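Long-time lurker, finally posting.

We've been working with Flagellin (Selenomonas ruminantium) and I want a structural starting point before designing mutants. I don't trust myself to interpret raw outputs, so I'm hoping someone here can both generate the structure tokens and explain anything notable. Sequence follows.
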Amino acid sequence: MAMIINNNSSAQMALGEMRKNNSKLEKASQQAATGVRIGGAGDGASEYSISEKMRVQIRGLEQDIANAQTGTSLIKTAEGGIQDIIDNLRSLKELALNAANDHNTDLDRETIQKEVNSRLETIDDIAATTNYNGRLLLNGNYGIPQDVSTNNGPTGTPTLIGAGTYDYNITRDGVYSISSNYHGHINITAKNVKFVSETAGATLTAIAIKTSSSGGTNVWLDDITIHNDNDTSNSLYAQGKCNVIQFQGSNNTLNICNSVQIFGGNCNNQGATLTNRENSAAINIGDGLTINGIGANSSLIANLTDVGPGNCHAAVIGSNQGESLSGDLTINNLSYFQSGCEEGPCVGAGRGGHIGNITFNNVGEIRLGTRNGNGIGASPGGSVGNITINAHRLYGKTGNYDGNGTVIGNYNGSNGAININADYIFLACKPSIASVGNFTMNNNTSGTTITAPATINGTAYNPSGHSYIANPSQYPNSQVFEYTSPAAADNNGEKLHGLVIHTGTKANQNLRVIINSMDTGTLGIDPLPVNPREAAVNAISAIDNAIGYSLNENTRMGAYQTELSYTITNLTTASENTQASESTIRDADMAKTMMEHAKYNILTQSAQSMLAQSNQNSSNVLNLLQ
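Top reply, 14 upvotes:
Generated this for you. Predicted structure of Flagellin:
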């Protein structure tokens, strides 16, 4: 080997190895000191990125577990308040039963009334003050914003309207059960009448109901389906010259309990007199009608059908053809309303007819479909007053046989101001755009979605930016108006309510807790008279309804707690598994790390020794100079 002094390759090689070993020793020392194998991106870029995401996931899961636990505590607080209300309702039931007994004098009942009033005040106090972390729970702020009525009408054993074809007169208030084999006219002169079906789920046919001409009649329909859209001799007898339901006079109410379907119209082979069916509204409002949804799941479907085109000119709900009615129509608190017709409006004035103002208040969903008429408004030659719609979702379509159909407003008629407030609106002038029931419609030309001028959610109606032509290649004149309110834009048109318990690491992973109002007004027991005895008897039914309502609320609280319990279990499992996976990626194997540390410690010391020996090679050159 040549003896040189300018370059010492062996020393350089030893120095390089020492540096490598020292770097690995430092890394092993760091891993041993911190307990982690991946301390930064330099230790493994992809592993570092994956483990950091897992750490974020773990922190999120831990917070979600805490959220679910605090949410459970919140719901338990609400449950406790509701249970206190139920306890007070039990006491009220005892007091009402006591007052209903004739061993009490009126003076005794007055004493009982004082205790009843005290209990009612206690219930209102509980509803007004039950809170978690200052957030009031039972005052209705986190319930479904639907001022639904709990007035289920008359109670007691139903009177049967038996099978056969005959007229039936109702002169006394009460509950009446209709046989599925009954056909005929039901004439009501009583003031409070509730109808149920003798057989649950049965379809009633060929029935015409008429109220007293004096007005002020309250009718309840509970899970009733009436189909008069058929061509039978019974239909001819029952509805040859009248509506399915005809209200007379003013101040009438129709109360919808659960699911109700009313179908009228459809003449064909039964003779000329049957054309009156198609020129008669399915529900004639008389000189004023209010339709109320009872409970949180009230649904009304009303149709007026026709075998042949161009014959059906009455409104489904409103006036007959050519009939002028002075009263208003108000529809309140229905969860779901659907209506379809041929030439006339779904809701409004028939051809050449008139009704007053049309108002929808607090309706969950409205669906309207016409062949060549209008959804809400007036037919040709007809007129209506102001049209006001307050709903969550509003759908409508018209088939436009001759291009004059209108979804909201007038079809060659007239109307007052139009004011629509809805979270989501979808109106179309072609049946292919918005499916609403089984309606047969033509696809010829376009019509009008909304008759201007109108106001949409407080802003003057402007189709710009909301109207467009749908599927122009197939339906070149297919007009659509679509609107989503800002409050609903973040949830595909759904406006959400209730308390949010966030239970997941994503933005949309949460549990919405609905807690309805629990005050005495909502419970239907404000006021609650127990004097005289008849009032006490009525109070018993009201208290039973309130107890049922309260038990439903507390049952839902229990369901929420069960769901959160499962959620906590799942979140805990997910957190444990994610932590284990993150540990596999990031944590150091201490036995292996200490082995590496010892290895590179020895190699570093060995390299230092070799470097020292290599540095001695240059000094050997001096021996040549001696």
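Before you design anything, note these points.
The first strand starts at residue 131 and ends at 132.
The radius of gyration is 38 Å.
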